[in-house]
């Protein structure tokens, strides 16, 4: 039996890897990183200029992702979002 397997890495495979990474973060007591944030980082930063990636690179990128990379990305996103708000949005943080 000599079948040729033509396996394509699909969306569900990527979803599974991202779930694994989020679970790994939770095991490290990093509970506030969501699967969506991991996905956003990968597509908006890590893979932004990539046309295509081999399956092994995708797996490596996800599984070797460090909390510090996600934290830096989320910090920048928070600053960008805050820069679009007016002072009233921060009223609860301003002492009276």
Strand coverage percent: under 5%
- Note the total helix count: 4
Strand count, sense and closure of the main sheet? none
Output the helix-strand order.
HHHH
Q: Please give the number of β-strands.
A: 0
Q: What do the pLDDT scores average to? A: 85
Q: Radius of gyration, rounded?
A: 18 Å
Helical content stands at: 55-70%
Low-confidence stretches: 1-6
SS-derived structural category: mainly alpha
Oligomer state of the chains in this structure:
single chain
**How many angstroms does the end-to-end distance come to?**
78 Å
Basic shape? elongated
Description:
The chain has four helices and no strands. By secondary structure, it is an all-alpha fold. The chain has a domain at 30-80. It is elongated and about 55 Å long. The chain starts with 10 loop residues before the first helix and ends in a 13-residue tail after the last helix. Residues 1-6 have low confidence and may be disordered.
Key words describing this protein structure:
mainly alpha; elongated; disordered N terminus
